Amino acid sequence: MAQNSVRGEGTREGVPHARELGWDDGLYGEGEAGASAGRTTSPDGQAQQDGPSAQDGPGRQGGGEQDDTEQQTDADAAPEGSGGGHRRAGARRRGKRGKHRILRWTAISLSVLILGTAGAGYLYYEHLNGNIRKGKRTSSETGAQKSKPNAAGQTPLNVLLIGSDSRNTAENLELGGHKASVGAPPLADVQMLLHVSADRKNASVVSIPRDTRVDIPACEDPKSKEKYRAKRGLINETLQRGGPGCTLATWELLTDVYIDHWMMVDFAGVVDIADAVGGAEVCVRDNVWDRDLRTGKGGSGLKLTEGTHEVQGVDALKWLRTRKAFGSDFGRSKAQHMYMNSVIRNLKSQNAFTDTGRLMDLAEKSTKALQVSEEIGTVKKLYDLSMQLADVPTDRIAMLTMPRIDDPSDKDRVLPMPGEADKLWKLLREDTPVDGKAPTSKPKAPTAPKDPAAAPAEIGVMVRNGTGAGGQAPTPKRASTVAGLLVDKGFTGAKSDTTQQSQERTQILYPSADLEGDAYAVAKALGVPASALKKSTGVSGVTLVVGADWRTGDAFPKAPPVKAPSKEVTDTVMGDDKGACMDIYKPYRF
Prior knowledge:
By secondary structure, this protein is an alpha/beta fold. It is built from 17 helices and 23 strands. The chain has helices at residues 3-6, 18-21, 33-37, 45-54, 56-76, 83-131, 170-175, 244-255, 267-277, 313-321, 329-349, 356-369, 379-386, 420-429, 478-488, 516-526, 567-570, and strands at 133-135, 157-164, 188-196, 203-207, 213-216, 219-220, 227-228, 231-234, 261-265, 280-284, 288-289, 303-304, 307-311, 370-373, 397-401, 404-407, 410-416, 460-465, 493-497, 507-510, 533-535, 543-546, 573-574.
């Protein structure tokens, strides 16, 4: 993570579930106090939850005093002269009082013990929260919009995972890199987008190689307030230009996928987390030793014999960093995906999501190792986030790398593959599985906005020609043609706009909620899907940008169903593939 933007501000992810550990206020319903009392070592909400449960003791104690009163009333009602009976009643009262005192003190002692334990749990919870370093979610506003809920009201989750190559601590320097790199701003060496479907029944992890050339938006460092101009550059540079928030913004600009959160880890953090999750099985098809060669310096130090091995700690980091022996950055991404799948399978098979002791260890190490965006800056939120994958079956977890082509201007760099990369981003935006299998949830049918539209003749519409995207020449007079279509449909205020705004997809922009109904009316008149509507502060009224998907014709073309990119161009590895094995580049065999 960029040291200048997030250091010391603290937050991390991957901690035990609040509902399992009792860290969630109001976790238990009425009548479940007894259950909550059994969780007294849990932090946060448990101090409150156990409090009432513990007070059941004093409550029963109060009931005992009521019994004494009732006994006293019975004794007082005995007839005069019945002294023996009175003495016997007195003895019974003293006996009962003694028993009630014992019960009372026992209850008080239990209450103190329970509340004391819960207090310790709360302090530990606060300790975990204190471990967390956090930073601003984004360093630039890109206009990417959150996904709309599905038919059941659920929304997908997108989390950007970033691996920093920082060498600015003794631990990180020892694990990799040269002393000359100490003090240099870190690069985003590893970048993956975790997408979990709205119904939490399928998930994907998409990597973008670090040497991918992209458009980087203007960013502002949230701590130093230093501003960086937009530029064309390598995606790994984004961490130096406003911290992880700029890396997130660059992904949004490239994919138009709204990203909810980011999480970042450095070398030392990887080792700590790898130790906490335990060993993960990896496989190589030949003996491998990733080391210095005469033809090239550098290497992770990974040394394994042919076959399957369990790696953790430093060895896990070596596996995740190996590049040359696996042939390229793309091979490294595939190896990282294999490792992650193995970890997920292990956690599921070992019931780690419900093993409190295991989760506490994960909580301690994860909160120290991770830095996260501020909106997930508590242990409870991080654990809830980690549990989003708990119910996803491994055969519906797909890990893949962005389809890419060589950069014509530099063979050592890559570009997103036209067409294939766009398909992938569209699948993520629409929450469609990237594994090629059937969707697991139904989309919500589009509904008209609550704000009613004005009469067509009263709606002003500016039409722009955006058909020049993808390296194509713009279709001549396309804005005028489409504006004429609107005029013919009664939108007499439609006019062409000469503003250049080339883009792949047709969009209808509107600046505020009171014009959403008007934008919807324009979309309906032209047969443009409601998903093309987008609120934007970059326009002053309803604006139709005719994209490269509508270069000719009067009718808006119906888009064919988008198919997932082929596994050949994405190196897809499925979560249940236990036989996945890495090929080794010949010079690194032994």
